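Per your request, structure below.
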C-alpha cells in the first residue's frame, strides 16, 4: 500500500515570505511531513475498529483515507515525470512499487500461513489458503467480491488475509493509473481537435499536460462515482471491494495534487480547512454506522475530509504554527506511527484473527492492548530489517530483479497455498462409525438408553474438515439458483421415469439442505422431485421492509421468482404436492404491490400455500431446523475435539430462530390440510440441541444440515409424512 510509504525529502524548500504567520507549506510537489500523521490516524482508525467495532463504528474509513492519499501522491509523481520528460517509464514506476510493497507483504503472508496452519482449525484451512493465494496475487478484493455474491459463503469465518483487499485495490490502481493517464494525454487532444501532442510539446507546455491530466482524472472520477452509486445499491457487499467503485477516491486525491501544484490553500484559511478536514474524518469514524453501504454517498465524508487536509497548507513558523493542524500531524510520535503504518496495517489483522484460538477465549481488553503492542513492534522491526534494506538496497535496484522477485514470491505463495489446502484435505476422511450402527446419526436420539448423543468412542465421520467443505461442494449442482442469477434453475431427482408422485421442492438454501433426505425417500417411494430453490430467497409473497441479507437486485429477483412460481405450480396439472423449506430469520415484511396483508410476516407465506391447496396440491412445510447460535459448527467441533458437547446449546436457544414458517403455521390464515414435518426431536433432546449425533456433525456451517446427517433423517421424515393419508397411500 504505497499510501503508507514515506515520501523522500526534497533538496529544495520553497518559502512564502508573504505569509503573515510564517512559512506555510502546501505544495503537492514537496515533502509534507504532516502526511505521516494523517497515515497514523488512518491506520489507528482501522486497528481500533477491527478490535472494537462497537467503540469506533466508522473506523473502517481509514482505508478510504489511504486511497485518497495514494491518488494524491502517485498523481503528483506521474505529473512531474510526464511534464519533465514527456513520458512515463512504466517499468521503472512498477518496479519501485514492487520494491516498496512486496517484500513486507510477502513476509506477512508467509508468516500468516504458518499461524493459520498451527492455530486455526483445519476446517478453515481450505478457505484460508485459497484467500492467501489471492492476496499474494493481489486479487483478494475480487475473491471477496465472489464470496459476497456467493450466498453459501456468507456465514464463513473471516480469513486471516482479508485485509489484503485494500492492498489489492491499490496495486490494481498502480497498474492501471499511469496507463489511463497516458491514454488521456493521447486521446483528449484528438477529441478536442487540438494539434497533435508530442513528448516535446508536453515538456514545453505545462498548461497543456496539466489541463489534459485534470480532464482525464475528472472523467474517471465522474464515471467511477456514478458506477459506485449503482453497484452499491445493486450489490452492497460486493461493491465495497470493487476497484472500479473505488477509483473515484484515488481520482479525488489526484485532482487535489494537480489543483494544488504550486501552492495549496495557505495561511489561516488553510489551517481552518485542515482542521475542518480532520474533524470531518474523526466525526465520520465515530458516527458512520458499521453496516453503512459503501462506497455510496457516505464515502464522500472520508474522501472530502482527506482532500481538505491535503489541499490545506501548514503554518510552520511563527506563533501561528501552534494552531496549525500540520504542526500536530508532524510531531515525532505521529511521524513514527506514519512511518510504520504499512507494517502495522499488514500485521494487525492476522493477529486479531489468530488471537482467540491462541488464547482459547475471546480476547479481553488487556489482550487487545497486547495485540496493538505486538503489531507496532513487528511493524517497526520489519521496517528496519526488511522494508528499508530491500527498498533502498542494491539487490532489487535493477528493474529486472524487482520483477523476478515479484514472480518468485507469487509462485512461492501459490505453492504454500496449494500445500496447505492439500494437507487439510488429506486428513478429511478417516473411517469411523458404521452406517449400520443402531446409534448412527439421527438414530441416536431414538434410543437414549443405549445411545449417547455424542459418541465419545468415535471421532466424527466425515471429519470436521470434510463437513466444512460441503458449503462449497453441493451434492446437487444446478439444483439451486444463486441470489443474483437471472432466471430460475431446476432439476429432477428421484424416480424420473415412472413416478407415483410429482413433488416440487420450494424454498431457499435450507430447502437444498433437505434434498439428501428427500432424495432417499423419493428413490424408495418412487417420487419425482422438481427443485425450485433460490439462495437467500424466503418463499413469501410479501416484500422485505429492508434488505438485511439481500441486495436490492437480489431482493427484486427473489420477488419476481416467487410471484411467477406461485401460479406456475398451481396451474401444473401433473404436480401432486409442494414441499416448502426455509431458514428462520428475523426479516421484517410489508405488503407489496398487488398483495395487501394484515400481517405480512405470516400471510405472505400462507397466501402462497393457499394458492396451491386451492388447486388440489398437497402442501408440506418442513419446520425450520434448530440453530446452534452463530458458531460455525464444524469449526467448533474441530476446536473442541475432546468435548463436542461444548458446541451444543439449550433447546430453548436452538428453537429461538423460528420466525417465519413456524409463525405462519400457527397463524389463523394457514390453510387447512397443511402437512407439518418437524424433525427437532431428531436434533435436540429434551434440553439440548447437538453439534454431533451418532458420529455425524449435524450442520456444515451455522445453520444448514450436513449432507450425511440429513440423509440419516430420512426414515423419521418419512414416518412423519406417512401420518397424512395422502403420503401413506403413496408409499
Amino acid at each position: 500500500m504505497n499510501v503508507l510509504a514515506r515520501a523522500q525529502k526534497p533538496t529544495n524548500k520553497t518559502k512564502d515570505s508573504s505569509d503573515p504567520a510564517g512559512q506555510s507549506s502546501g505544495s503537492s510537489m514537496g515533502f509534507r511531513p504532516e502526511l505521516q500523521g494523517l497515515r497514523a490516524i488512518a491506520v489507528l482508525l482501522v486497528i481500533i475498529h477491527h478490535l472494537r467495532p462497537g467503540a469506533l463504528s466508522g473506523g473502517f474509513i481509514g482505508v478510504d483515507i489511504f486511497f485518497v492519499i495514494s491518488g494524491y501522491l502517485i498523481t503528483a509523481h506521474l505529473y512531474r515525470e510526464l511534464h519533465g520528460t514527456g513520458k512515463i517509464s512504466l517499468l521503472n514506476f512498477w518496479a519501485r512499487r514492487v520494491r516498496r510493497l512486496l517484500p513486507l507483504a510477502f513476509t506477512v503472508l508467509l508468516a500468516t500461513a504458518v499461524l493459520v496452519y498451527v492455530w486455526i482449525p483445519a476446517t478453515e484451512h481450505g478457505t484460508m489458503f485459497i484467500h492467501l493465494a489471492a492476496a499474494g496475487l493481489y486479487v483478494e478484493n475480487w475473491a471477496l467480491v465472489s464470496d459476497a455474491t456467493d450466498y453459501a459463503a456468507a456465514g464463513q469465518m473471516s480469513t486471516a488475509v482479508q485485509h489484503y483487499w485494500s492492498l489489492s485495490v491499490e496495486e490494481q490502481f498502480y497498474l492501471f493509473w499511469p496507463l489511463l493517464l497516458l491514454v488521456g494525454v493521447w486521446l483528449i487532444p484528438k477529441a478536442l481537435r487540438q494539434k497533435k501532442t508530442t513528448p516535446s510539446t508536453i515538456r514545453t507546455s505545462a498548461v497543456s499536460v496539466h489541463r489534459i491530466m485534470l480532464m482525464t482524472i475528472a472523467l474517471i472520477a465522474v464515471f467511477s462515482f456514478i458506477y459506485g452509486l449503482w453497484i452499491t445499491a445493486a450489490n452492497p457487499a460486493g461493491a465495497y471491494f470493487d476497484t472500479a467503485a473505488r477509483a473515484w477516491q484515488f481520482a479525488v486525491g489526484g485532482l487535489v495534487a494537480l489543483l494544488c501544484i504550486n501552492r495549496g490553500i495557505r495561511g489561516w484559511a488553510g489551517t481552518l480547512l485542515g482542521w475542518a478536514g480532520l474533524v470531518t474524518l474523526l466525526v465520520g469514524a465515530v458516527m458512520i454506522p458499521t453496516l453503512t453501504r459503501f462506497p455510496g454517498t457516505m464515502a464522500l465524508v472520508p474522501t472530502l475530509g482527506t482532500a481538505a487536509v491535503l489541499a490545506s497548507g501548514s503554518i510552520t513558523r511563527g506563533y501561528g504554527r501552534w494552531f496549525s493542524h500540520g504542526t500536530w500531524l508532524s510531531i515525532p510520535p505521529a511521524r513514527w506511527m506514519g512511518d510504520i503504518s504499512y507494517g502495522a496495517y499488514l500485521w494487525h489483522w492476522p493477529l486479531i484473527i489468530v488471537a482467540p484460538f491462541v488464547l482459547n477465549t475471546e480476547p479481553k481488553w488487556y489482550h487487545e492492548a497486547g495485540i496493538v503492542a505486538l503489531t507496532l513492534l513487528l511493524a517497526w522491526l520489519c521496517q528496519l530489517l526488511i522494508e528499508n534494506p530491500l527498498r533502498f538496497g542494491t539487490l532489487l535496484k535493477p528493474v529486472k530483479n524487482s520483477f523476478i522477485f515479484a514472480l518468485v514470491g507469487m509462485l512461492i505463495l501459490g505453492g504454500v497455498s496449494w500445500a496447505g489446502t492439500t494437507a487439510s484435505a488429506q486428513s478429511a476422511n478417516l473411517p469411523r462409525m458404521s452406517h449400520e450402527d443402531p446409534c448412527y446419526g439421527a438414530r441416536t436420539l431414538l434410543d437414549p438408553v443405549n445411545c449417547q448423543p455424542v459418541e465419545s468412542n468415535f471421532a466424527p465421520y466425515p471429519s470436521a474438515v470434510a463437513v466444512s467443505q460441503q458449503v462449497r461442494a453441493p451434492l446437487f449442482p444446478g439444483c439451486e439458483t444463486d441470489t443474483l442469477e437471472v432466471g430460475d434453475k431446476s432439476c429432477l431427482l428421484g424416480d424420473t421415469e415412472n413416478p407415483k408422485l410429482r413433488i416440487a421442492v420450494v424454498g431457499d438454501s435450507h430447502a437444498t439442505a433437505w434434498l439428501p433426505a428427500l432424495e432417499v425417500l423419493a428413490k424408495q417411494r418412487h417420487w419425482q422431485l422438481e427443485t425450485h430453490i433460490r439462495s437467500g430467497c424466503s418463499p413469501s409473497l410479501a416484500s422485505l421492509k429492508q434488505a438485511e441479507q439481500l441486495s436490492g437486485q437480489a431482493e427484486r429477483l427473489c420477488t419476481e421468482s416467487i410471484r411467477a412460481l406461485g401460479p406456475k405450480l398451481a396451474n401444473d396439472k401433473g404436480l401432486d404436492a409442494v414441499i416448502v423449506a426455509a431458514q428462520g430469520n428475523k426479516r421484517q415484511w410489508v405488503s407489496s404491490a398487488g398483495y395487501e396483508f394484515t400481517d405480512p410476516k405470516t400471510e405472505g407465506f400462507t397466501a402462497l400455500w393457499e394458492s396451491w391447496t386451492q388447486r388440489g396440491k398437497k402442501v408440506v412445510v418442513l419446520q425450520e431446523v434448530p440453530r446452534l447460535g452463530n458458531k460455525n459448527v464444524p469449526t467448533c467441533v474441530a476446536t473442541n475435539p475432546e468435548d463436542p458437547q461444548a458446541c451444543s446449546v439449550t433447546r430453548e436457544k436452538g428453537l429461538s430462530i423460528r420466525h417465519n414458517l413456524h409463525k405462519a403455521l400457527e397463524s389463523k390464515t394457514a390453510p387447512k390440510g397443511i402437512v407439518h414435518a418437524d424433525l427437532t426431536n431428531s436434533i435436540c433432546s429434551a434440553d439440548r440441541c447437538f453439534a454431533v449425533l451418532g458420529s455425524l456433525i449435524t450442520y456444515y456451517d451455522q445453520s444448514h444440515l450436513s449432507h450425511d446427517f440429513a440423509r440419516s433423517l430420512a426414515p423419521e421424515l418419512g414416518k412423519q409424512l406417512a401420518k397424512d393419508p395422502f403420503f401413506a397411500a403413496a408409499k
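The mean pLDDT is 86.

Regards,
D.
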